[in-house]
Amino acid sequence: MKTKILIFIYLLIPAFLLYGCKDEKLYEDKVKIVFELEGGTYQNCTLPIVHYYDKTDSITLITDPTTLTGAEVTRSGYTLEGWYQKKLENNGTTIYQDRWDFEHNFVDNQGVTLYAFWKKDIKYLYQLCYYNENQEVVELGNYSVNPGDKFKDYANYSYNRLGYTPIEFRDAEGNLWDDNFTHPGGETDLTIQIFVEYIEGEFAIVKNANDLRINKSKNIYLANDIDLEGSAFSFNDYKGIFMGNGFTISNFTINYDPSRNGLIQDFDDPNAKSLAISLFGNVTDATIQDVTFDNVKINIKTSLTITHKIYVAPIAMSSVNSKLKNIVFNGTLTCTALPNGFDKDNNLIIVDAAPIYKQDEQTVLDNNQIDLKIE
User: Fold this and answer.
1) What pLDDT does 8 receive?
2) Could you tell me the mean pLDDT of each successive run of 10 residues in the chain, 375 residues long?
3) Helices (H), the chain
4) Does residue 220 contact residue 238 with C-beta atoms inside 8 Å?
5) 8 Å CB contact between 333 and 350
6) Which of 68, 117, 153, 228 has the fewest CB atoms inside 10 Å of its own CB, making it the most exposed?
7) DSSP of 115-143
8) What pLDDT, on the 0 to 100 scale, is given for residue 374?
9) ∠ at Cα 146 (140, 147), nearest 5°?
10) Right CATH for 7-120 from 3.40.50.11030, 2.60.40.4270, 2.60.40.420, 3.40.120.10
11) How far apart are the C-alpha atoms of 322 and 296, rounded to whole Å?
12) What pLDDT was estimated at residue 236?
């Protein structure tokens, strides 16, 4: 049924229509629709909205104020849940009944008064924060969520603390954050605080083999045991900080380049080229600590005749101003091919009980356990 709307006006002064007899006569042949705002605001006015429709011989659909003008009916801190036909008072509580459906409810020539029903906005938040040096809580950011939502730092607020790397989340009691926790919601605003635990500096958090390979030249914070499943791996020359945190990297073969490009200037003869094999290569200004390398295989296989010497060291070939502490290394060394005429007895140098071959005075070795078995 097509509804013909002649005019709608805003009742700026209630008494204007109630007592203005002349004005009442202007609309006495119209159907009057009143929208009580119940504390809301419409186009900067808090008074009721009045629409007038032509009277017809049948029932008529009506339109809500927002649809007609595009202006929103608002109330700070509340959301308009709908318009209702009945407003009841019960022991100081206002109850709204019979929600009006603008697509299916019709009005007759008696008109209708509708009441705005407001639902209080309740905020459910996850607040990400940390304790600063003075044990003050500093907010990094927050997420507005629904009841039942899990926490996820999808905006990476945890990285907003400059000069620090987030390593894990904890609850307000200091326990590790439960990834299965869901926001409980409730009848009032509820903020759940999540605290970020940091390590000073910029680190790559390494939890699996892919993380390790991608970030092997960076500062590393090992967060899991990693099984490399027999693949080849090495760090090459390392200049970073490796925090092992007591975890183990296992089941891998140290890879190296036996070609001409992979040779280095010999440590003793500057005119000779030699092959150097180790896990971290040459370490400079590095820290490597609290890590176990288990079931590590080293296989010497080269036929390049210009190779003067072959050096094998479990952790590093040389160390400058570096610290190696609490490293455990368990591995085996095999030799399947050497260049023709290679002097194995004099030119194959194997370090089987120490982490490195050559070090400067500033290098610190502390509590390392090296076991390289020669097969």
Assistant:
1) 37
2) 37 31 64 94 93 85 86 92 94 92 92 94 95 95 96 96 96 96 94 97 96 97 97 96 98 96 94 97 98 98 96 97 98 96 95 95 97 94
3) 14-19, 21-26, 65-69, 209-214, 344-347
4) no
5) yes
6) 68
7) EEEEEE---EEEEEEEE-TTS-EEEEEEE
8) 94
9) 110
10) 2.60.40.4270
11) 23
12) 86
Angle at 68 (CA atoms; ends 16, 59), nearest 5 degrees: 80
Predicted pLDDT of residue 11: 33
What are the extents of the domains in the chain? 7-120, 124-200, 204-374
CA gap 61, 64 in Å, rounded: 10
In this prediction, residue 69 carries a pLDDT of 82
Closest CA to 326 of 285, 283, 355, 353: 355
280: which residues sit within 8 A by CB, 6+ positions away? 234, 235, 236, 237, 238, 286, 288, 315, 316
- Contact partners, residue 296, CB within 8 Å, separation at least 6: 250, 252, 253, 254, 279, 314, 329, 330, 331, 332
CA angle 348/354/359 to nearest 5° reads 85
- Phi first, then psi, for residue 159 (nearest 5°) are -95, 10
CA distance 176 to 124: 21
* Joined tokens for residue 171: 């609850």
The model carries a pTM of: 0.70
Alpha carbons 245 and 226: distance in angstroms, whole number: 13
Q: Which pLDDT value is given to residue 366? A: 97
Type of residue at 256: Y
Give the distance from CA 267 to its chain's centroid. 47
CA distance readout (Å), 99 to 25, 109, 113:
31, 20, 12
